From TrEMBL:
Gene3D superfamilies: P-loop containing nucleotide triphosphate hydrolases. SMART domains: AAA. The keyword Nucleotide-binding applies. GO terms for cellular component: plasma membrane. Residues 23-273 form the ABC transporter domain. This is Nickel import system ATP-binding protein NikD.
Length: 366
């Protein structure tokens, strides 16, 4: 399914043409050859990121978020991985670019921050040494200048007494400080796009909030866009401009923070929101589990867990995304022409109660 397959309103088209995307992902499909067959981790997703904005990819563990963002700069090992589709960064196709080009973009124009700083830092070297090495890979500068830049970066990411901590080893820093150091590493190349994969998951709630604030500050200071991967809608609410909801390698819904939090259209998005603390469903969570990635359902990927599933949901692949308001689209059969979307979105415009509409949909489904 492509973004071009959707049915945008004229207003939405005008809006998306206002500024050229920094990153355009179209029809990205990443698979892995396994003994049990082809594992489809990401299955034809479209995502755009414009300069200066924060886009969050959100979904459960196993939804394909990490593979999707690692496919952008071809961090997925191939073989067994196979990446198809189009990934354009500043207009250049990264999937067909040669290795030298990808290496020059990776860590420079596009930088990654990963979940566990514990594994990303080398514990045999001081953090200062590691930063200086990273700086000198990017810039041909004398060691003294690289050292000054490293101290400045440590200072900018909030490491107190940066110059005196320069010669400390990773084990002498807390988990939150290590993640700050990893963010400093990512900033070495002055990237236009920072890809952050669950960067706060391993941190306690207080430190998590501090790191999210840091992302916001640095985004402005370094004039970067951020593509942020998380399973936590609470985190998304803090930082996102736009949200793409992934499930089993497919896009279920996309929209602004207000669209998703105030007018969620997809049953999966609604279920994720109900799992937020204080929304009443955090203990039971979403029933069932993700489908086998080597044998996904024929119809909507969410059908085996969806309380509203009807016959039409079990055939003809994932429903095309329907744009229900400018920039807000949903992949669900109940948004097709002639169906009543209030079945899956009870606060919808028809005012039909969920139970009545559900009954009506079942009785009229062919
Ligand atoms: S298409 Fe069907 S199964 Fe999928 S979310 Fe909509 S109602 Fe549920």
């Amino acid at each position: 399914m492509s973004e071009h397959d959707r049915d945008p309103t004229p207003d939405a088209e005008t809006e998306t043409r206002n500024d050229e995307p920094l990153l355009e992902i179209e029809g990205l499909r990443t698979t892995f050859g396994t003994d049990s067959g082809t594992l489809v981790a990401v299955d034809g997703i479209d995502v755009t990121v414009r300069a200066g904005e924060t886009v969050c990819l959100v979904g459960e563990s196993g939804s394909g978020k990490t593979v999707a963002v690692e496919s952008i700069t071809r961090l997925v090992q191939s073989p067994p991985g196979r990446i198809e589709g189009t990934v354009r960064f500043k207009g250049q196709d990264l999937l067909s670019a040669d290795e030298a080009t990808i290496r020059s973009i990776r860590g420079h124009e596009i930088a990654h921050v990963f979940q566990n700083p514990q594994n990303a830092l080398n514990h045999c070297y001081t953090v200062g040494w590691q930063l200086v090495e990273a700086i000198r890979v990017h810039e041909d500068v004398p060691e003294a200048a690289a050292r000054a830049r490293a101290i400045d970066l440590l200072d900018r990411v909030g490491i107190a007494n940066a110059s005196s901590r320069f010669d400390d080893y990773p084990h002498e820093f807390s988990g939150g400080q290590k993640q700050r150091i990893m963010i400093a590493m990512a900033l070495v190349g002055d990237p236009d796009l920072l890809v952050a994969d669950e960067p706060t998951t391993a941190l306690d709630v207080t430190v998590q909030a501090q790191i999210l604030d840091l992302f916001e500050e640095l985004k402005t200071e370094f004039d970067m866009a951020v593509l942020f991967v998380t399973h936590d809608l609470g985190v998304v609410a803090e930082i996102a401009d736009r949200i793409v909801v992934l499930y089993a390698g497919k896009v279920m819904e996309r929209g602004t923070v207000l669209d998703i939090f105030e007018r969620p259209g997809h049953p999966y998005t609604r279920a994720l929101l109900e799992c937020l603390p204080g929304r009443g469903n955090e203990i039971s969570g979403i029933g069932g589990s993700l489908p086998e990635p080597t044998a996904p359902p024929d119809g909507c990927r969410f059908a085996p867990r969806c309380p509203h599933a009807i016959d039409a949901c079990h055939r003809d692949g994932q429903p095309l995304e329907t744009e229900i308001e400018p920039g807000h689209s949903v992949s669900c059969v109940f948004y097709r022409e002639g169906r009543d979307s209030s079945v899956v979105s009870p606060e919808g415009p028809t005012g039909v109660s969920s139970d009545d509409a559900d009954e009506e949909a079942r009785s009229t489904d062919d």
